[in-house]
Amino acid sequence: MKRYFITVEDLAVRVTEWGSIDAPVIFCLHGLGSTSLSFVEIAEAVKGDFRVVAIDAPGHGKTEAFLTAEQYELPALAKWLDKLIDILHIDHFYFLSHSWGSFISLFYFAEFPQKVAGGIFIDGGYQSKKLKGQSMEEEIAFYEQDFEGYTETWESFLADAVYGEDSRRSGLLDLAAKDLVMEKDNRFYWHARGTVAGSIVKGMHKNEIIDVYFKFPFKLLLLRAELPKEQEAYRDKASRLFQQKTGATIKVIADTTHMLHWDKPQAVIDEIKSRWLVITTD
C-alpha cells in the first residue's frame, strides 16, 4: 500500500494505491464520512490481480474541503472526479463504490460511460430522497450535529463512532478507523466536519438520483444491506425501482448493515473475482 497526494483544481487530494500499476484498475470511492481506507480489506485481497486506487474525497481524511457547497453537487463532483482520474492516467477502469460514493458514480457513468468497464455498488446509489420522504433540512441538521460530536477516549470513539455493538473487528479495520479520527484537546472527533456533511446532503437532495436513472451500457451490481430490519420496506422499494430503471443486478447480503463491506468483505471480494477477474484474464 502506498499513499501520496496529487493536486486537482488547486485542491490537495490524498490517494491510496495497492497492486501493480500495469494491472487492470479498480477505482474506489467511499461513502460520506469515510476515507480511502474504507476498502482496505478488499484491496489487500485483490491487489495481486488489480491495481486498486482509492481517494479521500474532498473534506474527508487528509483531502482538503471544497470552498463552496455548490462544488459538492453531484454533476460537479463527477466532472471534478474525471479530472482527477485523468491526472492519475487511468483510461479505463472498474468502479467500486460505497454509499454516497455510488451516487457520484451514477453521475460519472452518465457523463463518461466510455471510461467504465463495470461497477459494483455497496449499499449505495439507490436510496432516493424522494422515496424516503425526509426533508433536506432535517437530514442536514442530523449530520451537522452528528459529525460535530466527540468522545473522551480512543476506545469509546471506536465503540461509539466506528464499530457497532456487535460489529466484526480486524487489524485492517482498526487501521482504517485511525483515518476517521481527529484528536484535539484530548477529545476524539470525527475527521469530516458537519459543514462538509451538510453540503453533501444538500447536493444529494438537489440532484435527486431517481431523476437521472438510465440504462447502463455495462453490467452493474448492487450489493444491498439487510439490517436494520425496520428499514427493509424502504430499501426494498427503492432498490426495486433502481433495478427496473437501470437493469442492475441486485443481491441482498444477509446479516449486513450499511457497512456491508466491513461486515462481510468476502462477499465483495468474491463478486470482484467472479465478475472482473475472468474478464481480465481472457
Structural features, described:
With 282 residues, the protein is of the alpha/beta class. Helices cover 41% and strands 20% of the residues. The protein has an eight-stranded mixed sheet with strand order 1-2-4-3-5-6-10-11, with helices on both faces. Helix 2 crosses helix 3 and helix 5 (136-147) runs antiparallel to helix 8 (194-206). It starts with a strand and ends with a helix. The mean pLDDT is 94.
List keywords for this structure.
single chain, 282 residues, alpha/beta, 8-stranded mixed sheet, 3-stranded antiparallel sheet, 11 helices, 11 strands, globular
Task: List how many beta strands DSSP finds.
Answer: 11
Helix/sheet category:
alpha/beta
CA(first)-CA(last) distance: 27 Å
Strand order of the largest sheet: 1-2-4-3-5-6-10-11
In which range does the helix fraction lie?
40-55%
- Which blocks of ≥5 consecutive residues have pLDDT under 50? none
Query: SSE order in H/E notation?
Result: EEEHEHEHEHHEHHEEHEHEHH
> Average pLDDT, to the nearest integer?
94
Largest sheet: 8 strands, mixed
Global outline: globular
| Count of helix runs | 11
Report the portion of residues in β strands.
15-25%
- C-alpha Rg (nearest Å): 18 Å
Structure, briefly:
The chain has eleven helices and eleven strands.
How is the secondary structure organized here?
Layout: E1 2-8, E2 11-18, E3 25-29, H1 40-46, E4 51-55, H2 74-87, E5 93-98, H3 100-111, E6 116-122, H4 129-132, H5 136-147, E7 150-151, H6 154-162, H7 171-178, E8 181-184, E9 187-190, H8 194-206, E10 220-224, H9 232-246, E11 249-252, H10 260-263, H11 265-281
Parallel strand pairs: 3-4, 3-5, 5-6, 6-10, 10-11
Antiparallel strand pairs: 1-2, 2-4, 7-9, 8-9
